[in-house]
Structures are given as structure tokens and as C-alpha cells.
Fold these 3 entries.
Entry 1:
Amino acid sequence: MNHIIFEDLFVLEMANNHYGKLERGLKIVREYSRIVRFNNVRGAIKFQLRDVDSFIHHDFRERTDIRYIKKTIDTQMARADFIALAEAIKKAGCIPMATPFDEKSVEFCVELALPIIKLASSDVNDWVLIEKIAHTRKPVICSTGGTSLKDLDDLVIFFENRNIPFAINHCVSLYPCEDSDLELNQIDYLRKRYPNHVIGLSTHEYQNWDASLQIAYAKGARTFERHIDIEDDGKPVSPYCSLPSQIDSWFKAYNRAKIMCGGSGETRRTVSDAEARYLNGLVRGVYAKRDLPAGHVIHHESLDRDVYLAIPLQKGQISCRELMHGETLLHPVAKDRPILIDAIDSAYAYHEELKKLIYERGI
């Protein structure tokens, strides 16, 4: 399966479905897409889709005392507005995404040509909805929330069997959550249990999410999600949401983490020339302790009488790394003079590439 679409992807979810106002949603897109471009990251802007007529039972649509129902009714938006919003996200250089909460909304995701669908933590065992999402063949990101291990295993197997790219976000469904609630070690657990899938972090803490991102990246998380909002029209910003300046800081924390973590964790890193030069400056070179004649053989048994190790290492001089048993001197070496690679008969002396490196290092 091709999981590249999830790699280093930031999903920015519009909090409270931008209060159901198209203009507010467009303003969010404008402000956050600029920050995405400025920080040179891959950003998706996500909204929520609910077909109110089918999603809420008709007998309960007037129940304003039920918070979820009231919020859904108050923030609903016309289909034409969602089409305009998705088009604005594309034009702004971001990836349009949605979380559908019912089957008609999944069909709308297809109509909007959304490249990725999000499955909410609350729906990880809603198999009617999951089957509908799978029929689209679109890549899916799922937040784990309070999901049981069995439900998560079933979900992973379901998408694997259908060869549908599937990413798994570690998530704690507390809004907001404290640092002590984050359980970031679960990223290690998920990576080990599902090694063929991209693991990410969906986070709702309200204190310092820069640190959680950097820790998560170092642990191998490669897709990230946060709720976003703007201060506009006097509407309150939820404590688990990020403002534009905070997302800018978040992206910068990611770029710092990426630089600090470096390359692959699966292979030994390549040592830079600068680091090699620094280390070579600390390596001891081999010096003659006494006048040594041509034809003299350096044995381990006579090392203390023949040579000593000291800094600095000089160009062409053998170091403690190359000092072996049985080197024969090709010409005399005076006391306290460096023993050069050309002065000995050893395996190193016949390796031209190695000789070149030895002559380039040191002072």
C-alpha cells in the first residue's frame, strides 16, 4: 500500500465547524494556508460533514438541552458552501479533508473529490459507516481515542484486507487534556504493533504542544493533527485550539525536530566531513620512541620500546586506528618523528583510497 500521502502531513481541523459560517471558514483557510506555505510543510485543512436530516432523529431536533445536537444544528452549512470551502482550500495550496459522520456525508466526500477521509475516534466500530468509507477506496486516517485493542486490530485488518492506505493517530479524547494525559509512549506501541502503517499524533493539550510534537516526531510519528481557530466576531476560542501564531510555532518546532532527528533510524548515519575533521583532531598519532632502522618490525611485545601515541595527528601519519601487529619499516624513522603510512609495509599502505584519506586528515 502507498502510505506516502500520510508522511509529514499536518491536518488542521476547523474547530466547531467554523460556526457554520462560510466567510469565517474562508478566513481560516486564508490565514492558515499562508502559515503552511511560509513553513514549507504539507498541510491539510479539514472540516466536518453531517447530513443533519439523517444524522439527528427528527423527534430530537428541537432538543437544545442536548449539547451535541444543538451544536450540530447551529453549525450546519449548505452544500454549496462546503463546495466553495473545499475549492478555496485547494486554491490555497492545501489538501481538503473531511470527517464524515454518516453515509450521505461519505458520498459528499466523493463529490468534493477529497483525497483523504478522516475516521473519528467515536466511529471506530461503526461498521456501517466504515464499510461506506472503504467503498470510496480513499486513504483513511483514524484517531484511536478510547478505542479498545480488539476494535483497533479489527479496523487495521479490515483496511489491510482491502489494500486501502490507512494511518493511525494516537489520540486521547479529552478536550483539553493535560500533559500528564498525553501517553506519548503509545506511539512506540502502535509502531511496533502496526509496522506497515504510518503512525501519527492527534493532540488536544492546551499548554505547550510544541514539546509533544517534537517528542512524537522523535518516536516516529509522521502525521499530526490539531484543532485550529481564529479570534473573530467575538466567538470564544476553545482552550484545545491553536491560533495562527501558535500553529506557526508548531510548524517551526516540527522543522527543528526534523533537523535534530536527522536521517533514517534504520541504518547507521553518514558521518559529515566536519565531524570527521573534528574527531581526527582528537586522534593520537604514532611517533617513534627511539631511532628505528629500516627493516625493523613493530610487534605488540615491543610497542612500549618502539613507539608512543600523542597528538597532534599529522598528515600522512598512521594513528592508533591503523597501528597493527607486524608492520615493517621501509626506511629509518628518527626518534620523535611521525611514522607515515608510506614508511611501513602493511595492508593499509596498499589501499590507495585509504592512503588518500590518511594524507588528507590531520595538520
Entry 2:
Amino acid sequence: MKHTQNLNLLALATLIALAVPVYAQQAAPKPEDTEVWSPVPAVVTPGATNTAAPSDAIVLFDGKNLNQWESAQDHTPAQWIVSDGTMKVKKAPGVGNIQTRQAFKNYQLHIEWKIPESITGDGQARGNSGVFLASTGPGDAGYELQVLDSYNNKTYVNGQAGSLYKQSAPLVNPNRKPGEWQTYDIVWTAPIFNEDGSVKTPAYATVFFNGVLVQNHTELKGETRYIGAPFYKKFDGAPIKLQAHGDKSEPISFRNIWVRDLK
């Protein structure tokens, strides 16, 4: 019996001795093991400045015309005012929100906006507008990123500039004074729906406001609702919409709008 035990111990020791070189070989990976060489990312030429459109962007407004825009109500040509390289909300009967002629799903959006220096009013009646990241119907249907003068202007925090309206307050308040241009850089991830209309994955938005992160891959609970809780309605791609809120203050201005479709 003792002889057998010795043989078994000898066999075990031999196996261990044989395994050690193999283990040692596996435990010493090479740098090349984790190098990925393809597919090679497409080359994109950046804009001359951080706010200029890169080479693969779709320019939605370059200060010249509204060819990329239509009425959100009836799809007729947009009737906002274009002057001095900007466009302004036009306050006239029958003129309301405008939206892109093209529908988008997931994208990167750059847009600049300005509250008039002569703004009056307070709270929500101080340069109110909105960027609807997906316009799912006429009126104010869709997912709204709030535009407002929030420089020394008190209102509910999930309704100030940089908020996903009535859902998520901005992380900080980086507003500039009225009369100065403000910038939104947005990454929008559209919701995905199951065949029965239920939500497979929700919508997310990341927003930089004047270069400052204010929404960090924020999950949306559904479409924007002025009254009541948000909820989802199935859609597949939608225009980007700009809001003509209808407050009595001087119209706000927009410029330099471009989008990168993220396939």
C-alpha cells in the first residue's frame, strides 16, 4: 500500500511539474494579444473651431435660410425670421413650432441660442423655448430640453435652462447673461420599442451647456408632459423641433445648428 501511495504522489508531482510551464506560458500575455487593428474608424475632419460643423455633419441652419425646416403643425415651409445670420421665433397667427424636414434616431446635435438683452418677465415667462429632441406630433409632443433665461431667474429646477423639462434638473447652472450666446451640445439615444409598443430600452440624453456637463446619460421616463407624469408612445425616428412658446417677451434667436446622425 505504501508503495502505491508513493507512486501516486510521484505521478501527482510529475503532473504538477508538467503543468507549471504551461501555466507560466499562459500567465505571460503579450501586448499584441489585446491590440485591435480593424475595422479602421472613418476619418472625420473637425470644424475650424469646437462649435463649427465637422465634415460628416448635416448643417440644419447656417444663417442663410430655413430650407431644412418646416412647420411642425402642417409641414408647410417654416416661417420664422432669418436675419444677420440668425433665426428668430416669429410671433404671428398660424406660425408656431418648427421642425426639421428630416427625421433622426440617434444623433449628436449642436445648437446655439440667445435670450434678448432686453428680456422682461420672470420665472417661465422669460425667454421660454425648447429644443425637442424627438418631435412625435404637433404642438408640444415629444422630448424637450428646456431653453430659458436662468441667469438670476428663479423657477422650478426641472424647468430651468438645461433641464429635461419636468423630468431632470441640470447638474449645475452655467447660464450666461441675456444678450450673450449660449450653446447646447447634445447626444440623443432614442428609445427602442417592442412590437407591442412596450419599451425595450428607454431614451437617454447627455447635454453639455456652454461646455459644462448638465445631463450625464440621463434616462428619460417618457415624453415631456406639462401636466401629469411622462409616458412613452411608440415611434421610430422623429424630427428635431424648436418651440415657439408664445410668451410676451422679445423672441429668442438661434444660430449654428448642425447634427451628426449616429448610425
Entry 3:
Amino acid sequence: MSVLRSRENARVRRWRKLAADAYARRSEARAIIDGAHLVAACLDAGVAPVTLLVSEAALENREIIELSRRAGTPPMVLSEQVFRAIADAETPAGIAAEIRLPVARQALETAPGCVFLEGIQDAGNVGAILRSAAAFGLRHAVLGRGCADPWSPKVLRAGMGAHFALQISAAADLAAELQRFGGRAACTVPRGGTTLAAADLRGRIGWIFGSEGQGVSEALAKRAPLHISIPMSRQTESLNVAAAAAICFYEQARQISTSADRS
């Protein structure tokens, strides 16, 4: 059995760069996913890995053996030291994969719903929003300038496989993408908006969420006819953006489900 043991190997250097460098991921349209859960989600979505990477120490792990079988291609075996140089996690699970970034399967103009992110820099927040969007039935996400790279290791970990249930794109001009989407735009405001339960969230909604400190920019908020406030204690100034997004997605899913039951 051949085992890659040099961190200076050209393939290893490239995988390290894909794991660490957003520019490399964009230019090659490739990414590294790390961990059994993400590899399983990738395979469940029908995305075939370009290369499956397995650490030498994990070769006897039953779960990893099964994932290797499902991938349908022999894994590239790496020494523990080399695998740790590629994996971003503090305690690597022993399996990773190079993948092609998924190509959009549905045009934004016909998407039933979408989430637009403006300047959200925290990788955990971006990943959590994507995870909630997928959980509550949204299938499109557009990330504007200043957002954390959705295919970075930290966003991927926080997303917990949601990336493979969503069509994710980046845009320099969110306003133009909102116009292309064509549905009703909605954004949250701390006070003075329509209360969440009173808002009609059926139909094609484009949710806009802004940066952790500034929220949605004034220019983009003006393009949203629906301003929503989430009722909360007066002692609380605001919610974390990922928590606010999850609450909004849940209420929209609840309204759609209730409407379908009545019909």
C-alpha cells in the first residue's frame, strides 16, 4: 500500500492551499471537505469526490471503510502528519475529500425562495444560516461582498452538510441579484417592523441578513418592502444574526405548512 508521507509533495501542497486559501478555491472551483459527516452528505447528494483522502491510522475504521466503498474510488492514503497538515479540525476524523464546487441546477429567477447575506464575516454565523436555510426548505443562498467564504473549512463544519442541499453563489451586487430573483424581499429590523407572526411569508421570499455589527445596509433595506421585527424582551437589544435567520425561516415554513394543510 502506497502512503503519501511528505508535506512537500506537490499534491499535498495543493490540497493544503485549497483548504486554506479562498482565492485558490474560487480559481479552481474546488474545495476540501473534512470529516465523515461532510463526506457522507456529499455522497448522499450524488456529488462524486475528485479524490478521497484517508489517514493511515483510519484505514481500519468501519465508517471510513464504508464511505470509501460508497465513493467508488480507491482512497489516497496519507500519513497522520500529512493528513493533519490538510485537515482544519483540531482532531481530524481521518477522512476528507477534494470536490468540485457544485454547479447551480435551478435559475435564481425561478427559485421558490432565497437567502441573501450581506457582509456577514463570521464563519460560524454563515454556516449556521446555511444550515437553517436547508433545514426549513430554502434551496438558494447568495453571498455578497465581505461574507466569509462559504466553502472554507469553518463554514463547512458549521453548515453540517447543508451546502449539498443548497445552491450557493457569490455576487458583487446583491441589489442586482435581488432584482433578478424577483420575489418579495424581507429583512429584519430591531424595532418598528411588522411582527413576525403578523407578516405574510407565503410565496417567494428573498430574506436579507446583514453584518453582525451594522445589519442590512440602508440601500439594500430600501429594496425590501417587508421589514420584520422579532418580538423579544426590552432588555435585549438584538439577536445574533444566525438565530434571527433560523426564527424567520421556521415561521415561514410554519405558515407554508399551515396553508397547505388548510387547502
